[in-house]
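Standup notes, protein team

Yesterday: finished cleaning the Gemmata massiliana set.
Today: Response regulatory domain-containing protein structure.
Blockers: none.

Input for Response regulatory domain-containing protein:
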Amino acid sequence: MTASPAHAPVILVAEDAPATRSNLTLLLRSEGYTVREAADGDAAAEALGDPGVAAALLDLKMPGRDGLAVLRAHADRLEEVPVVVVTAYGGSSAAIEAMRLGAYDYLTKPFDLDEVLLTVRRALTQRALVAQVQALSADPLADDPDPERDELVGRSPAMVAVFKAIGLVAPADEPVLILGESGTGKELVANAIHRNSPRAARPLVKVNCAALSPTLLESELFGHEKGAFTGAVARRRGRFEQAHGGTLFLDEVGELGLELQAKLLRVLQSGTFERVGGEETLTADARVVAATNRDLKARVAAGEFREDLYYRLDVVAVTLPPLRSRKDDVPLLAEYVVKQLARKHGWPGLALSPEAVVALGRREWPGNVRELRNALARAAILARGRVVRAEHLAGDDPATVPVPPVVVPPGAGALDLRAAVAEAERRVIRQALEQAGGNRTRAAELLGISRRQLFDKVRAYGLDR
């Protein structure tokens, strides 16, 4: 082990789990860093007040003050002391809130040790840059989501990147373009951006640009005067007026016609518009968040979407991954949806069998999270609010092949979902290895996961012995 030199940066490791804290300490010391440890939130808060601390690894869930409370208490020092949040929880609210509060980065457990070291190095680099900027400036001459609210859910790298992006763009009062296939959760991203923005106390107004004809959509967005058209029996305020001081979410913005695109561009550039049939110029004060599942660059090239409007909307883009590219999130998503369904319908016994979870993970989900949610709702009804089995999903997907049931030994007590799912996954991996003749690359292809994921799971389940 490399001894820490006297001038080595001091890294705070704030983690209540002794084994994790010890492993992180050993890792950092082996790289020459000096480590200071904290086992709870109060100790972490005290240590972050020490000017000698250069950076911190901060667990979100700790006794005393939690990680978010520690971040809030030291918000004024987070540029000088970059904090990397580490947690085992995949819910989006904590990730977004941590980034909004100023955390430098966000890692989920179990984390890759090389990634931890790389992130610490980057954090220290940022700290050095901040110190340089401050030196130049000193020149004397110059936390659980609301259970009733839908949330983005995931702990895959792709979703953690989405949470980070939301946390970074939410405070900025600029347009945001949300990209992603149908059903990936673009509206949830818009909700999260608004909820974490300075406009959160004002309205979030939503318009589906594909649901109305061009004439009706113009009236919907900008309002109309009495007598502007047949049926306009009174003046009506448009969505831009209703969203004053808040956020206007334009879903399926790629479906706008060219004439309306020009009027939207004018609002974004000048902040002014007129109601349909009106002469008075009105001022808009609404942040525009737009979403589309279309390839807007291709539409620009085809002359179907204004290039100037595209660049005006694409100040910051957040891209949502399709569910098929983050299959590791399917069990977590399924558990989240089932809990929602159980609460909504009063089904306390609603649960997923391990073979149902494995069956869900085998599907491609072209309709993404929306399709998963609908499939689980249908299966829950077929299961009469009890345990959803693979056969309850088979009618929804003809390609579903039932997985051999996990046998729970007599007297084993209540079925622990995570343990049962792990056992089912272990059996499926073993079958894939046998089918591939021990070739792990081929087994990974059969399972639809990366070689690295397979190696990690083989080691975790003791299948390499």
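Follow-up from PR in the comments: Confidence is low (pLDDT under 50) at residues 136-145, 398-404, 411-415.
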